[in-house]
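Figure 3 (text version): structure tokens given as input.
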């Protein structure tokens, strides 16, 4: 999610014709950043992880209507999706980038967790928060604003992701024991907890804004 925002902002900055008049929809960017991993829930219909939904052609076809309607404004969102496998998964593992033209897997396979993994996850989060602060987005995302209700979507997505990841362990105690005994896993857990707390606070502020609006309407009535 963090790198999706970073790369989307980079793409936006590189397109002069839209960068002045375009404000990214942060919740959408965050969700798009992990959307290719939806294939984790599609194995029952024969779509294996890091295959179909991790290819350039698949997402190019998906985005054709958006390119036609929104043109260059769609590019940052497209980048938010493809960076997941062209950057993250490519470095950490192997992906079928050229499906359906090739079934070959490409990648550097540094593995997870690893020092490279921890470095990139930490750097991504720091850069994302840094850019948000510079652009003023962080203040808005942490303020009482009904637009922050949409942060419930990436919050839900990361919770589902965490539950899927934790299912690899036989029990919660086993998961906690492994995290406590592995410094790399501990750092990754802390990083993800920071992101989770951020999404939760932003979502809560959206709910508070909605509640404030309802009270205001009731007073007027």
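Below: residues designed for each position.
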């Amino acid at each position: 999610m963090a790198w999706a925002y970073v790369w989307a902002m980079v793409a936006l900055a590189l397109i002069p014709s839209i960068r002045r008049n375009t404000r990214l929809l942060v919740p959408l960017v965050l969700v798009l950043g992990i959307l290719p991993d939806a294939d984790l829930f599609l194995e029952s219909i024969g779509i294996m992880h890091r295959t179909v939904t991790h290819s350039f052609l698949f997402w190019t076809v998906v985005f054709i209507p958006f390119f036609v309607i929104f043109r260059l404004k769609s590019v940052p969102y497209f980048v938010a999706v493809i960076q997941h496998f062209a950057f993250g998964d490519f470095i950490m593992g192997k992906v079928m980038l050229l499906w359906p033209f090739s079934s070959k897997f490409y990648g550097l396979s540094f593995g997870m967790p690893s020092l490279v993994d921890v470095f990139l996850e930490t750097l991504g989060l720091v850069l994302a928060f840094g850019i948000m602060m510079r652009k003023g987005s962080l203040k808005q995302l942490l303020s009482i604003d009904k637009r922050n209700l949409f942060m419930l979507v990436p919050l839900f997505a990361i919770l589902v992701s965490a539950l899927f990841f934790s299912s690899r362990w036989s029990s919660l105690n086993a998961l906690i024991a492994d995290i406590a005994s592995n410094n790399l896993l501990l750092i990754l857990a802390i990083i993800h907890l920071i992101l989770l707390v951020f999404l939760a606070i932003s979502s809560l502020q959206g709910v508070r804004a909605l509640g404030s609006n309802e009270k205001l309407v009731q007073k007027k009535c």
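The CA atoms of residues 156 and 199 lie 9 Å apart.
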